[in-house]
Amino acid sequence: MRSMTSGEGGKTRPPRSGNMNKRGDSGYARSRLRLVVPFLLPAFLIYTAFSIVPLVLTVSSSFTNWQGTGMDRPFYGLRNYLLLFMDPQFLNAAKNTLIFAVIGGIMVFPPSLFIGWALTQNIKLKSFYRYVAVAPLMLSVVVVALLWKFLYNPVFGPINSLLRLVGLRALALPWLGDTRTTLPAIALATAWQQSGMWILLISAGLQRISPDIREAARVDGASEWRTFWSITMPLLWGVLRLLLILWIIVSLQVFAQVYVMVPHGGVASSAEVVTTLMYNRAFQSNQLGIATAMATMLLLAIFVLSLLTNRFTKRQVVEF
């Protein structure tokens, strides 16, 4: 059977709607692309200039013996990375960084979970308490470090003064001058500042949970603790996973608190973390090759730990 065309029996062939739709869709996509690109291009260029390019330069510099005083960058290969694993200072800093992450996580998560839950209850002055919890986020890291350095002062600091006042003079320690307490003291200051974000996100996650679910559990005879552990926590797990990954990123990159709070002296090694050692090697010892290798190792550690945390804390999504 022959297809009908124009001029054959006075009939014309009907248009091919499929091809026209395809041409229309492609034209719409091109017009939309022309509209979107001008908006995305400036942000992409800025992100590339200030994030991608420095990252590439950092990784490439880690394979050199750059001293930071000129453009001469002799190729070193993997020697910088091999030297790091034989450097006792770097191994000590890596150990302190992991200890800081664990101690700080213990300090920030339980209080934030409790306060976040309390702020979802029917209590007076809820807005005031929420403001007090979030207020430390408004302060810069250096201001928080100086504030806590004053609080920890062994002579006139309020913490030791209060301990002496209540008869606990034996607990009035030089918090930033004792190798046993330096790292936990800095972790407490960091947890205090960061807890506001944790409290806000946990409160938002709890408010998304319908009260009818918890009420049904209570009607069935479940205690408050059982309701919280078996119903609230599984429904809140997605938020807690996100906060755990955020804490890994924040804690492994801690710098200003340690640099400002720890006095330069004998106890500095007890609180030396990877970022402070990296700063000293780069800007005091002019070992830019080693310093960029530390930065690359820290980047890989954050990526791997975040990936593992996301993998091993993943659970089945609970719909509610």
3D architecture notes:
Helix content is 68%, strand content 0%. It is globular. It has 320 residues and is mainly alpha-helical. The chain folds into two domains: 15-61, no CATH class; 79-312, MetI-like (MetI-like fold), CATH 1.10.3720.10. The protein contains twelve helices and no strands.
Kindly provide the name of the CATH class of the largest domain: Mainly Alpha
The CATH architecture of the largest domain is Orthogonal Bundle
The shape, in one word, is globular
Rounded Rg: 29 Å
- Give the DSSP E fraction (strand runs of 2 or more residues): under 5%
Write down the domain tally.
2
Helix- and strand-based class?
mainly alpha
Which percent bin holds the helix content?
55-70%
CATH superfamily of the largest domain: MetI-like
CATH topology of the largest domain: MetI-like fold
On the 0 to 100 scale, the average pLDDT is: 83
Q: N- to C-terminal separation?
A: 60 Å
Give the uncertain stretches in residue-range form: 1-10
Q: What is the H/E string?
A: HHHHHHHHHHHH
Number of DSSP helical runs: 12
- Please tally the β strands and state the result: 0
Largest sheet: none
What keywords describe this structure?
single chain; 320 residues; mainly alpha; MetI-like fold; globular; disordered N terminus
In brief:
Helix content is 68%, strand content 0%.
What's the SSE blueprint?
Elements: H1 17-61, H2 79-85, H3 88-118, H4 126-134, H5 141-151, H6 158-165, H7 182-207, H8 211-219, H9 224-252, H10 256-261, H11 274-283, H12 288-312
Helix pairs in contact: 2-12, 3-7, 3-9, 5-7, 7-9, 8-9, 9-12, 11-12
